[in-house]
Design brief:
nine-stranded mixed beta sheet; Rossmann fold; 13 helices; globular; 9 strands; alpha/beta
């Protein structure tokens, strides 16, 4: 079969309303290329896709904390609004991975994806994870993640990672891949469709999901008007002012914990603050009458069919995942990938939608080994095995691209 050249010079034009293109006809060649000039990027935040006047937590508050952390078994560096996870000391990375987690939990990857990220780092990958706040505007948050990731990477290419013995030149020579889970999988595919420069050589797409809002959240269409009608009553209630103070109360508890706990991790607590603070903004969108994601799921599929640019794609689904839409994505991407001579593969693994988020349980065996210890250790082995298989599958597939 003759293959079409992979180019963005004359792509098909789709009638998608993308906010960063001023609602004009979509064309990747018209997306601004001035990411190298975006040195003001610290002011950008996925929160701003929800409300430009809101407090942009991610990328602003973290500037007030240290850059490098190494608490207990943690080994990562916070570089502005991105999380950098290097391989173990003394191990030269074999590739660079951009990682995106799912909706809500993607704001705190060092908490929700710590075990998977640790496994991938031990496989020899340098990982840059981009935390983001949940939003109904997928086009805008995709743009912001793209800019924030490349601003972080540009900074690393200039300074290197001297504490890990890595120069910028060494990092620049690494193959570049992406891994995304659930909503993060959707955003990775969108990024591979909106842009044709500085995109990964390969995408590992885990548990892809992009259901309409009415299916993702039952009774969603009725929820917006109901909240909007209730707002005057809620605002007049003393409970509303109390609810507004919840995030402040949370921050107070975090500060107190920092003073009394010797092994307290302030950076992880800071990310948990980001997780809590994104919830009110989502309800504000619902109250304002938001009834669907932008672009809609059907518009995304049309975009993928015409514009997806990533040469190699691995689709990963789990055998017990009721909300997975990997098969639909495979059907959509296959003709496009074949048209430019790319490669699309799919694997089915044991597990469920939250398998990538499995955490290593902290079970301290007492002075006497009891049946409870045996049960706990058995459950630990079962819960983590699927995540280890996932990590090995990704690593093996990516390694096959390097030969």
């Amino acid at each position: 079969m003759a293959t079409a050249p992979l180019t963005c010079s004359n792509p098909p034009k789709l009638k998608l309303k993308l906010p960063f293109l001023n609602n004009s006809t979509y064309s990747p060649s018209r997306i601004p290329r001035n990411y190298k000039k975006l040195r003001h990027w610290q002011s950008l935040s996925p929160r701003m896709a929800i409300n430009p006047n809101s407090y942009a937590e991610i990328g602003r508050r973290i500037n007030n904390v240290k850059n490098t952390y190494n608490y207990s078994n943690k080994n990562y560096k916070r570089l502005d609004s991105c999380l950098v996870i290097p391989p173990p000391q003394g191990v030269k990375p074999k590739a660079l991975i951009k990682f995106l987690g799912g909706a809500f939990i993607g704001a705190v990857p060092e908490v929700t994806y710590s075990y998977l990220l640790e496994l991938l780092a031990k496989e020899g990958y340098l990982i840059i994870s981009v935390p983001y706040n949940v939003t109904f505007d997928h086009a805008q948050v995709t743009k912001e993640i793209y800019e924030r990731f490349h601003a972080c990477l540009d900074s690393i290419l200039v300074s290197g990672l001297p504490e890990n013995g890595l120069s910028g030149v060494e990092i620049a020579d690494l193959p570049f891949y992406s891994v995304g889970h659930s909503n993060g999988a959707l955003l990775q595919v969108l990024m591979g469709s909106y842009y044709c420069e500085r995109i990964p050589k390969a995408n590992a797409i885990i548990s892809y999901n992009n259901k309409p809002a009415s299916e993702a959240v039952p009774y969603f269409e009725q929820l917006g008007p109901l909240i909007n009608q209730m707002m005057p009553v809620m605002e007049a209630s003393p409970m509303y002012s109390m609810a507004q103070s919840v995030s402040d109360a949370w921050k107070t508890l975090v500060d107190v914990a920092g003073r009394i706990m010797p092994d307290y991790d302030p950076e992880a607590a800071l990310s948990l603050n980001n997780f809590v603070d994104q919830l009110p903004a989502v309800f504000n969108q619902v109250a304002q009458g938001i009834s669907e994601f932008k672009p809609t799921p059907s518009e995304n599929l049309d975009c993928f069919k015409a514009l997806y640019n990533v040469q190699h794609t691995l689709l990963i689904k789990f055998d017990f995942d009721a909300i997975d839409e990997t098969d639909l994505l495979e059907e959509t991407l296959k003709p496009r990938v074949e048209s430019f001579g790319g490669k699309l593969e799919k694997v089915i693994l044991g597990g469920n939608h939250i398998t990538p988020c499995a955490q290593e349980p902290r079970w301290q065996v007492g002075p006497v080994y009891t049946p409870a210890d045996a049960v706990a250790q058995g459950l630990k082995a079962i819960s983590l095995n699927d995540t280890r298989v996932l990590s090995r599958t990704i690593s093996k597939w990516l390694s096959g691209l390097e030969v």
